[in-house]
Design goal:
The chain is α/β, with parallel strands linked by helices. It folds into 2 domains: about 200 residues, Rossmann fold, CATH 3.40.50.2000; about 200 residues, Glycogen Phosphorylase B (Rossmann fold). The protein is built from 17 helices and 12 strands. The chain has a 6-stranded parallel sheet, sandwiched between helices. Strand 7, helix 10 and strand 8 form a beta-alpha-beta unit. Helix 5 packs across helix 6. The chain is globular and about 65 Å long.
Amino acid sequence: MKLLVFTYAPAGLGHLRVTDALVDSRPKEYRYIMLGSYDRFITKFHRFFSVNPIAKWIFTVSQYGLMEDIVTATYRGILVMTSGQIYKQLTNIVNENRDSDEIWVIATHFGMAHQIGAVKERIINETGKVIRLMVQVTDDTSQHIWCIRGTDLTFVPSTYTKNELEKYSKKHKMNIDFEVAPYPLCPVLTNEMKDVASRRKSFSSSKKINIAVPISGASVGLSYLTKLITSIVRKSDKFVFWVLVKKSMYTDMFLSSISKLPNVKLITGRNDNEMISLYELLYQDNLINLEITKPSEQAFKAILPPTLVGGSILLFTSPVGRQEYENIDFLVRQGLMPRSSYDGVQDIDSSINNYPRAIRLSKNPDIAGNFIIWAHETGLFSKMSSEEFKFSERASSLGEVGPDGALKFWKIIQKKFG
């Protein structure tokens, strides 16, 4: 009997979303437990380096070249030295589940993955149990911190990232096995709509256009979003904004401002797990046409066709951090979005295959608002939502797009380890 141990960390919503997708799609005969890091320093660190301009610059510089190597080595060393708590927790789990012949640990954050990788062999020797560590990289990023000693299998969203991480791991004599599979998305988003043409048809009907606006775990870009939504609702009553935001001291002012606007529906939660559930319910109960979001892990909904529940058009705000720029590069390589932002009316190829699944909005919220109104009125959004949409032959052949990433994750693991 196998026991699954899912680990997660409070560093943004992305790791939780992926964990949630992998839990929901797991082989149902496997029992599972959750092992979370409750170090609030991670949350505060994540927010500080996402919001503070100087800290953001320092953090960005530290993600490239020699600085990346220094930071990676230092951070990895700190994680390994502070792995005592993880050792105790994992040892207790093994001892409390003696009927399980194998323990499969699924990590969606590199922090806990490095710590588990550091103590795994010690626990194996002490308990005699088979323990395997599987890691899911939660952006299409080749940051070296995702090369983790002691992992049995590491999943990445693209062949490009696999090649880049393999170069680094071989250079540093790390024996790491990488696998490419589409980014794992929760079953709610990957279900087919009852009427596959409904998203396209809604753009030409008298119905309101639903726009999801999920606020990031670090509450980034609130001023921009306030100005953007205000600009649109003042010029058009066609759009309804579904704003998902966690109540906190950082979002109080935003909630106060946005709640006064017409055609804005607020969905609030008390913690990250609740926000994940509310987000899935929003898509399950409503036809979402557009989503305004950061190009974080949310970017990977672009690998879904418009005929699926989660196949809304993605409108990206400015990227924050290396991983978000690399997620944009992933979508550009797939032909799923243009590289440049849209600062006004642009010509787009008339071939339906060349209509993108995502667009990067202008940094100017007024220009971005005008574009959204224009794209609806000219029929661009309708064409981008066509049920005839097809991924490019290149994207399909590489196995990097589609709704089956979570299922492929488990199929690959079962094939390798039984």
